[in-house]
Design brief:
alpha+beta, 5-stranded antiparallel β-sheet, 22% strand, 6-stranded mixed β-sheet, 2-enoyl-CoA Hydratase, Chain A, domain 1
Length: 528
């Protein structure tokens, strides 16, 4: 009897213990879920604030007026695209017919709501509903791996990618890389890339870098990065994927010689120190300065190089801006100040409200008597065109080469509160004569195309310029110019460089007038 009573008490205690354990476990699960949901809600609310901040910046500062409903359409499209890459290329109408996940929720309701958005608060409310619908109703296997930030970033990217080819959204990691690039330091393989015929293409390879040693050449098409196809990939994304921590591996696949695939190349990234200036003395005391890109230290480095050449009794100068994609506007203005008298207009910008900002030369003792030739080509863009345009308008240099790229817009990088950033087109820029080179480029005073010798490797393409980019801004002053097919040389030595050789001959013969220290103000329409 005693044993039976003891057994019953033991069984009761066991049951109570099991119930207690279950209660603790269930309570823990519930608390964990509540905390997780709370964290998700906090993250979502923070994300919505970031989205609102981005949309407000775009509406207020973009160079042209933006329709709120179109912006919201593209934001929702970008959010869906971050989950389903196949939807990224769909129109809003096509997206509206797409069934989301297993519940058959129609995205049309989101677009209909966006039609009624006319202020920031309503916009935030609609986007919050869209975010909730997507997270709850999209395919479950995708939803579980998706963080609110992924959807927020996808939405911001979708909105800003719809503006123009040069506006872009940058994650915190991409923003950090851009900051390093302006300083001339980053981890990568040592190539400059651009878009040619809608394909990511090598514009130049830096000597002594991993890419140079791997045999990557100018004109190579990059069709895969780490096995990911680059079709529809933006330049910003491609750069981000190719850069990384030094000593890490990168796999790329390239096409060469008109479509021959080379297979995967495995390259070890290194710390790349991009030197923006290369200077040397050529024959007959002709100085040569190549500017690869306008970075923070470019103007200072240029001034140092110029002084060294002057100390070597330089009589004339070649400034090579070929394949220079641009960079910092202020840096270009400071370089121009080396040759334009102080207080003279170098460039001015104009935003959508018509507000102008002028940038004037600031150097007290410019080397205004040095004869100058500026070499340009289809790869000379943005800040390069600012420098070339100023020297041309002030009749301070002879421009030689081929038509430039034609990027006449200014991008401003605006950090967001979470460390990400917008690169937003905020203004158009104009040369001292008040000329916009957007889509039209700067025409050389003396056109010189590359000379093709027998047996020399060439890359025949219709070169992509600003006017060829989808969604580009219009000029506003004139129609786009038509350009013929260009020939891009794959390899070229100085003695084969027809443009450089023509510049040397031109300066040898002194075939232009030396500008006077007090350059006459013959530029009509503006006070210089």
């Amino acid at each position: 009897m005693k044993k039976s009573t003891t057994k019953k008490m033991f069984d009761k205690r066991s049951i109570l213990f099991v119930l207690l354990v279950c209660t603790v476990v269930i309570t823990g699960i519930l608390i964990s879920k509540v905390l997780c949901d709370l964290e998700t809600e906090v993250n979502r609310n923070e994300g919505i604030k970031i989205f609102q901040q981005a949309m407000t910046l775009i509406r207020k500062n973009y160079v042209e007026d933006v329709q709120p409903k179109e912006l919201m359409h593209n934001a929702i499209k970008g959010m869906i695209g971050s989950l389903d890459p196949h939807s990224a290329s769909m129109t809003p109408e096509e997206l509206g017919q797409m069934q989301l996940g297993k519940t058959g929720v129609i995205i049309n309701t989101l677009f209909d709501a966006a039609e009624t958005s006319d202020n920031g608060n309503e916009e935030a409310k609609i986007f919050k509903e869209a975010l909730t619908l997507v997270r709850k109703n999209y395919a479950e296997d995708v939803q579980q791996d998706t963080q609110p930030k992924d959807l927020i970033y996808g939405a911001i990217k979708g909105a800003i990618d719809s503006l123009d080819p040069h506006s872009a959204f940058m994650t915190p990691e991409q923003f950090e890389q851009i900051q390093l690039e302006t300083e001339g330091k980053f981890g990568g393989i040592g190539i400059q890339i651009g878009m040619k015929n809608d394909i990511i293409t090598v514009i130049d390879t830096l000597e002594g870098t991993p890419a140079y040693r791997a045999g990557i050449k100018k004109g190579d098409h990059i069709i895969k990065i780490n096995s990911e196809v680059t079709k529809h990939m933006t330049l910003t994304d491609a750069v981000s994927k190719m850069r990384g921590t030094p000593s890490t591996k990168l796999r790329i696949t390239i096409l060469r010689d008109g479509g021959k695939e080379t297979g995967d190349l495995t390259i070890i990234r290194e710390a790349i120190q991009l030197k923006s200036i290369k200077a040397t003395m050529l024959e007959d005391n002709i100085g040569y300065i190549k500017i690869n890109q306008f970075q923070q230290e470019t103007a200072s480095d240029f001034s140092t190089a110029l002084s060294k050449l002057m100390n070597q009794n330089m009589h004339s100068l070649i400034i090579d801006l070929r394949n220079n994609p641009g960079g910092l506007l202020q840096s270009a203005v400071k370089v121009a100040s080396e040759f334009i008298p102080p207080g003279k207009l170098v460039v001015f910008t104009k935003n959508k409200k018509g507000q102008q900002k002028e940038y004037r030369s600031s150097k007290n003792n410019p080397d205004s008597r040095i004869p100058i030739v500026v070499l340009v080509n289809e790869g000379s863009a943005s800040a390069s065109e600012i420098l070339a345009g100023a020297l041309k308008d002030w009749e301070r240099a002879t421009i030689m080469g081929t038509l430039t790229f034609g990027k006449g817009s200014v991008q401003t990088i605006v950090p967001l509160t979470d460390g990400s950033a917008l690169k937003l087109t905020t203004a158009r820029y104009y040369t001292p004569k008040g000329i916009s080179i957007q889509t039209t480029g700067i025409s050389p005073d003396i056109p010189v195309k590359p000379l093709i010798k027998k047996g020399q490797q060439v890359y025949p393409v219709t070169v992509t310029r600003e006017k060829d980019l989808e969604g580009h801004l219009t000029n506003g002053q004139t129609e786009d110019v038509m350009t013929s097919e260009d020939i891009v040389l794959i390899t070229m030595n100085d003695d084969e460089d027809q443009q450089l050789q023509r510049a040397i001959v031109f300066l040898k013969n002194k075939a232009f007038q030396i500008a006077s220290p007090d350059i006459p103000s013959r530029i009509s329409g503006r006070t210089m």
